[in-house]
Design a protein that fits this description.
Elements (H helix, E strand, L loop, with lengths): L3 H31 L6 H27 L4 H30 L10 H84 L4 H17 L9 E2 H19 L17 E2 L6
Antiparallel strand pairs: 1-2
Helix pairs in contact: 2-3, 2-4, 3-4, 4-5, 5-6
């Protein structure tokens, strides 16, 4: 199985090959109806391979390495040197190499001036095509990068809104947790105060319940340790409440031995 990068690489090769094939067929379709001589396939293949080398040498090397960093003079000199080398290779091939395979050239060497004009025209044509291709590709990549950046910004804004909403929900939950216990304890204290005149046992039970619940929801329980004396007092209050509930039916002996001052323990473990 190919990776995404490999798939993109082979897809690009297939696209470029298809475009070149379509372009070659297009030019041959124009040339053949008005051509007197038959097409020399060796010459045609060699020339288009040479054109492709010119095209990609300019678009993949000269333009990114020299033109993009604004080294314009060096780029212009490199283009001139490239065209000179291309013209020399084309001349040697048409003069010595291609005739070995087929002497009937589609573009024979009639005069050097005619050959030079044709070579420079075709070479410059494909160098200009490479320049246009490079510009278009950069524009497409810039637009794609812009869209990716906009998408990333939208995702960041969305994430920021989600964080803000989470923060607001946490604030509301915090306020709710603060309001509810205060309301509960104020109400329990009201019941305790009102019940003292009617039943000492009832008022004591309300006070013990208030102490037990207050300890259970204290903020310090979020820490890893609490004072052992506070934990023991919490257990004693819990036992006292159940003694009020069950009376003599509850038989329980709870003893504390040893020094418990300044000792720490995990919260709500003993209960």
């Amino acid at each position: 199985m190919y990776s995404k990068i490999e798939n993109r690489y082979y897809r690009n090769i297939a696209i470029h090959a298809s475009v070149w094939l379509a372009y070659i067929l297009y030019e041959l379709a124009i040339i053949l109806p008005i051509s007197i001589n038959a097409v020399n396939y060796w010459e045609t293949a060699f020339l288009y391979v040479l054109y492709a080398l010119l095209f990609y040498f300019n678009s993949e090397l000269l333009l990114p390495k020299l033109f993009k960093p604004r080294r314009y003079i060096l780029y212009a000199l490199s283009v001139i040197v490239t065209l000179i080398v291309y013209t020399g290779v084309r001349f040697l091939a048409k003069k010595y190499v291609i005739p070995w395979f087929d002497a009937d050239l589609r573009y024979p060497l009639n005069t050097y001036n005619e050959f030079l004009a044709e070579a420079i025209w075709r070479g410059g044509y494909f160098m200009i095509l490479a320049f246009g291709y490079w510009i278009a590709r950069n524009l497409v990549q810039a637009e794609r990068s812009k869209k990716l950046l906009e998408q990333k910004n939208l995702e960041d804004v969305k994430r920021m809104h989600e964080l803000e909403n989470s923060y607001r929900e946490a604030e509301i939950a915090s306020l709710r947790n603060q309001i509810n216990p205060h309301f509960l304890f104020n109400t329990l204290y009201f019941f305790y105060d009102q019940s003292r005149n009617y039943s000492e046992e009832l008022s004591e039970g309300i006070m013990l319940l208030s102490k037990t619940m207050r300890y259970s929801i204290k903020d310090h329980l979020a820490n890893s340790k609490v004072m052992l004396d506070d934990e023991i007092e919490h257990i004693q209050n819990f036992i006292a409440i159940n003694r009020l509930r069950f009376g003599e039916r509850l038989q329980l002996k709870f003893e504390v031995k040893g020094n418990t001052r300044f000792r720490m323990i995990a919260p709500l473990v003993l209960i």
